Amino acid sequence: DLEKLGKSQLKQLEQMIQDLPETTILIFWYPGREVILKKSSTYRNFSKLVEKIGCVTEFVLKTRSDLVKILCKQAEKLGSAISTKAAYDLIDLCGTELNSLLHELDKLAFYALGREITRDDIFQLVTPSVESSSFDLAKAVLQGQYQKAFQILDRLLSQQQDEILLLSAMNTSFLDIYRARAAQSAGQNEDAILQAYSYKGREFRMRNAMRDCSRFSMGQIKRCLDCLMEADIKLKSSRVDHRIILETAVGKMILARQEVKG
């Protein structure tokens, strides 16, 4: 993050990129950060410097409606069809990464054999993203569906997902629900949260959280976040098997929900 660099560090970086050998290619890649040049003089000045000796390119995230159009057209090219509603379901399940969506669409079209791809096809064949599965796990815990929660966790672990990234996704899902519940308690709607936090390209996360959060108390959600924080510390500092840490965290969240409810 350029804005976290000191003046001397930033100056060293600027000097370094101006003295690069001709055989060197240096890439600054910011996939998880929204950089608004108009609002950041640091990034604006740095980008101008880069443009003098290289190039600056913005790869704008496609909106959900853009992705739906792409999926519908691609389905036709594959000799099949997919409705707008089903395409949105596919995005909700897989996320907004275009390559993953097209891969799943290829699989669905091959299965459909020329007929229209249905919602049943999608929910039966598509592998949910970690983000989608983590939200389902959070709902299962808070709704008291304990067997389902452990089944989802087992499926994610069987896919050999990195445990730390998996825990981060779980924490994000609970945080979404917490923000949604806090907004509802304050009489605010989904738009207020989208303006306050960065959900660009992932608005569906908050929409889903707003839809489900009213069934849970703030106390339940807070206790679950505490359990996840404890698990995060153990994952990064303990030699205990990571699977055991995650399973223990889910178990503690289940107990915490019962205690708060009681």
Could you describe the 3D structure shown?
This protein is mainly α. It has three domains: 2-53, no CATH class; 64-125, Helicase, Ruva Protein, domain 3 (Orthogonal Bundle), CATH 1.10.8.60; 130-261, Zinc Finger, Delta Prime, domain 3 (Up-down Bundle), CATH 1.20.272.10. Helix content is 68%, strand content 2%. The protein has helices spanning 7-18, 41-53, 64-77, 84-94, 98-112, 119-125, 130-142, 146-158, 163-185, 190-196, 203-212, 218-237, 242-261, and strands at residues 81-82, 116-117. Helix 9 (163-185) packs across helix 11.
Number-wise, the strands total 2
Count of DSSP-assigned helices: 13
Largest sheet: 2 strands, parallel
Count of folded domains? 3
- The proportion of residues in beta strands is under 5%
- Which strand order spans the largest sheet, edge to edge or round the barrel? 1-2
Helix content: 55-70%
CATH structural fold name of the largest domain: Zinc Finger, Delta Prime, domain 3
